[in-house]
Amino acid sequence: MKKETGKKVRLLCRVFFAGYILLLIYLMFFSEEWGRSILGGDYRYNLVPFREIRRYLKYRGTIGSWRVFLNLAGNVVGFMPFGALLPALKEKAAGFWRTALFSLELSLFIELSQLVLQAGSCDVDDLMLNTLGGCLGYALHRLVVSGGKHEKEKN
After folding, report:
1. Which residues are CB-neighbours of 139 under 8 A, at least 6 positions away?
2. How many domains is the chain built from?
3. Residues 16-43: pLDDT tens digits?
4. Which has fewest Cβ within 10 Å: 56, 63, 79, 82?
């Protein structure tokens, strides 16, 4: 990729990344449609790994498969843009482990903020699913980048 094109792509990724972070903050703390409110309400937290995942799977008949899918896949898919965009922000891309660590750190910050602010619910399962999403986003980034390199080699 030409140096000038690379700068434009990084700038565009920074704009998308900033928008993504703002959307994430809104959805995690302020979206009443997702049961979020800093003004109080019914508050729950889970610090036992896999407890909520098992509960959702066990009661999927009662709560509905769609809601189970939205919760579990939503936590993974919701962090995929983070993992895909983070390596594209700088000229020297972040590697897998750095992206995984930053995904874990951002998710931990969100979950601890939800615990302190009692907005949404603090859930260790969300931490694991979000980190997985960041890792899958990184894999998607690598697939796109390596796919572009293969196309360039063919020409």
Report:
1. 83
2. 1
3. 999 999 999 888 888 776 655 555 556 7
4. 63
Neighbours of 8 (CB within 10 A): 11
Instruction: State the pairing for strand pair 121-123/44-46.
Output: parallel
The mean per-residue pLDDT over the stretch 129-147 comes to 95
Residue 51 contacts residue 122 (beta carbons within 8 Å): no
Phi-psi region of 40 (alpha: psi -120 to 50; beta: other; left: phi over 0): left
SS3 83: helix
- Going by the DSSP 8-state scheme, the letter that residue 95 receives in this structure is -
Give the residue numbers spanning the domain of 149. Answer: 3-154
Biggest alpha carbon distance in the chain? 59
Coil, strand, or helix at residue 101? helix
> Residue 122: helix, strand or coil by DSSP?
strand
Identify the residue with better confidence: 150 or 121: 121
The total number of residues shown for the chain amounts to 155
Using DSSP, state whether 46 is helix, strand or coil. strand
The pTM score is 0.86
